[in-house]
Amino acid sequence: MLFHRSVGKNIGYAKENALPWEIENAAKVANIYEFIESLPEKYNTIVSERGVKLSGGQRQRIASACAILRNAPILVLDEATSILDSHTEQEVQKSINTMLDIENVTIIAIAHRLSTIKHMDRIIVMDKGKIVEDGTFKELWEHQVNGFV
């Protein structure tokens, strides 16, 4: 959720008294830094309520920057790339993969797109509320005859 305030304040909302360099670093990790730097007022550029003037990918990457800045031990991604075109999905996926490399972070991803979960350490496949498969992407892919459930 984005608020009617600057991009920097939207990212900084995740951490009380966040310093400018922390916000900038989170933006770099989330692959949104270059976009922010291209804005007329950079981190001081105002985004409208819910970020309606931004693309879905830009909103997702700003949300990723918030999560990175917050440094939360658990991050839940619910269909994080479902509304994105393939190019933007790749950009958001880069930021998710970067978050996967951060130590002591557990990411729970709810996804229908295989690309969203491809690099996860463990995948649990559910069907009608029951666990039907469990393993790495490679393990699950190798024994699929008719594709994933």
TrEMBL record:
GO function terms (MF aspect): ATP binding; ATP hydrolysis activity; ATPase-coupled lipid transmembrane transporter activity
Pfam families xrefs: ABC_tran
Domain ABC transporter: start-end pairs: 6-82
The entry's keywords: ATP-binding, Nucleotide-binding
Alphabetized PANTHER family for the sequence: ATP-BINDING CASSETTE SUB-FAMILY B (PTHR24221), ATP-BINDING CASSETTE SUB-FAMILY B MEMBER 6 (PTHR24221:SF654)
Name recorded for this polypeptide: Multidrug ABC transporter ATP-binding protein
Organism of this sequence: Rickettsia conorii subsp. heilongjiangensis
